[in-house]
Amino acid sequence: MNAAPKPAASPHVMNTYGRLPIAMSHGRGCRLWDTNGKEYLDALGGIAVNTLGHAHPKLVPALQDQVAKLIHSSNYYHVPDQEKLAQLLVERSGLTNVFFCSTGLEANEAALKLARKYGHDKGIERPEIVVYDKAFHGRSIATLSATGNPKVQAGFGPLVDGFIRVPLNDIDSLKKATAGNPNIVAVFFETIQGEGGVNPMRAQYLKDVRALCDANDWLLMIDEVQCGMGRTGKWFAHQWAGIVPDVMPLAKGLGSGVPIGAVVAGPKAANIFQPGNHGTTFGGNPLAMRAGVETIRIMEEEGLLENAARVGEHLRTVLEKDLIGRAGVKEIRGQGLMIGIELTKPCGVLTQRAADAGLLLSVTADSVIRMVPPLIMTTAEADEVAAILLPLIHAFLAE
Ligand SMILES: *Cc1c(COP(=O)(O)O)cnc(C)c1O
């Protein structure tokens, strides 16, 4: 069907990903072109990373300017844009202090260290952290131990201990699992699970957990690596429930594609780390900080939170109109531009079929079609996504 050459599996790069036989060449807005010149509509956004799409006309010159001035200097010295970006994050989250790193797992690793030291500072020798079924927190030994997916953990034991696992949205289970345990220091979850299949925590549950954490002096730690940075229509997804966490790891969308991570902390956790407790070579470097500052500035200039809410709602409505009640479609979940369509059978083949049809998306948790496009997506582009995707789903379900 396609005579163009496909990139072969590499003899030298480790075989860690089940990649599609496509290599991207360049992008513009919500469009990408591969090395054969084929065009794609991007509903994946580099897995919730490309907040501003590709080659954004305001971001490109800012990053070019920064690269020509200074990419990296090291945390031996002050980095003025760290203070600037920290202030932007603090103002938008209601928290107080930020530690910068380079990836999501690193932000979560810092959160786990904060929680353990929070315990040790209170005299708790063996601190325990509550985590969730189907959670995804990263691929380091500690974060894969916190992750609730046996496939991520298989082959890497012994796992890090000190985790207690509970189901989502069940306050009684949480209370039962922690009752009378003096070693609990924190509760840790994603507001909307990403890799686990786009599973939202309910607003009432978030409020109940906040109250339980307050009553017991535990840290409430919310992994907003995927669902945060405006994707749901608020800066952070937990803000829909009107709560404020104590610790919030961020990454993915924060730098519009430049690697960056951050852990944002409120008063209970802001002063736990002292000089020598934690650090990283790349974290907070001038290029990443400039990307973060410019991303937030451009998002506000262009009203991208409102856009994410509006276009997400539109896309979801179009999908629901067609799919709800259809045999083979279990549920449509998510908020804003984070949408999951759960089918009743594994549908991994749809990533390749969608790409063949010119649409980029992913399938997670085996049977959930996930879309996390750039927040600049227009209503017309959302209609185009639906126009490509719906016939593919119908054909797949008819097989
Ligand atoms: C992607 C993701 C991570 C891991 O981020 P990396 O940058 O890949 O280390 C952690 N938590 C959540 C919720 C994620 O979606």
Outline of this structure?
This protein has 399 residues and is α/β, with parallel strands linked by helices. It is built from twelve helices and 17 strands.
Description:
The chain is an alpha/beta fold. The protein has 2 domains: 128 residues, Aspartate Aminotransferase, domain 1; 232 residues, Aspartate Aminotransferase, domain 2 (3-Layer(aba) Sandwich). The chain contains 12 helices and 17 strands. Strands 1-2-3-15 form a 4-stranded mixed beta sheet. It has a 4-stranded parallel beta sheet with strand order 6-5-7-10, sandwiched between helices. β1 and β2 form a beta hairpin. The site of pyridoxal-5'-phosphate has 15 residues, from α4.
Name the poorly predicted regions: none
Major β-sheet profile:
4 strands, mixed
Query: Counting H and I runs of at least 4 residues, what is the number of helices?
Result: 12
The overall pLDDT average reads 97
Second rung of CATH, namely the architecture of the largest domain: 3-Layer(aba) Sandwich
Give the bound compounds.
pyridoxal-5'-phosphate
Structural class: alpha/beta
In the CATH scheme, the class of the largest domain would be Alpha Beta
Kindly report the spatial arrangement of strands forming the biggest sheet: 1-2-3-15
Please state the overall shape, judged from the principal axes of the Cα atoms: globular
Rg over alpha carbons: 21 Å
Instruction: Give the CATH H-level superfamily of the largest domain.
Output: Type I PLP-dependent aspartate aminotransferase-like (Major domain)
Distance between the termini: 20 Å
Family: Belongs to the class-III pyridoxal-phosphate-dependent aminotransferase family. ArgD subfamily.
Binding site for N(2)-acetyl-L-ornithine: 139, 280
Pathway: Amino-acid biosynthesis; L-arginine biosynthesis; N(2)-acetyl-L-ornithine from L-glutamate: step 4/4
Subcellular location: Cytoplasm
